[in-house]
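Dear colleague,

Thank you for sharing your sequence with our group. We've completed the structure prediction you requested, and as agreed, I am returning the results in plain text so they can be pasted directly into your records. Please verify that the sequence below matches your submission; if there's any discrepancy, let me know and we will rerun it promptly.
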Amino acid sequence: MATSANISLQSASNHLKKMITANILSVEKQGRHRYFKFANDEVAQVIESIASLIPLNKEYKKIKTPELNGFTYARTCYDHLAGNVGVRITNSLIENRIIEISKNNYKVTKFGKKWFSRIDLNIDITKLKKRSFAHQCLDWSERKHHIAGALGASLLEKMIEKDWIRKKSNSRELIITSKGKIELKNRLNLKI
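Please find the predicted structure tokens below.
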């Protein structure tokens, strides 16, 4: 960002701090990375309105998301599912009221506990693991969250065990099997 604005890193950092203080931006820390986003919908609407006043010219370059390929389509992020498929599964779990968002975490609903049980994933045992249960992890290629923590890892393990997903050798890339596509369609109404 500093390079694009032709300012020093320190100056960019100072401006970001001021925008956080003014409740224009919020920051999400993930490991050693910091991701900034609009603090709320109202700020986004104002920025969108202002942006619509700017005429596009030949020098305008839209920021592109990474091209969808095997790696950005489905991969591991540490020990959980990420990429386009990881985000879509997370969204489908939310839409089907299997999990719900609670601050920066996910919470399994009563219905969700039964749903996970039907795929042989015991939520009570998963909660006992000595780590975060289910938190949001920002996907770098999709710029949306997928499910991480003990639940995200256990879900990926279960999908591999049931041959819905296979690991590609010497890579973080994952392959969704024909069986996996059928199961995801039947269980989450998700067409992969």
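Summary note from our side: The chain has two domains: 2-51, 70-188.

Kind regards,
the structure core
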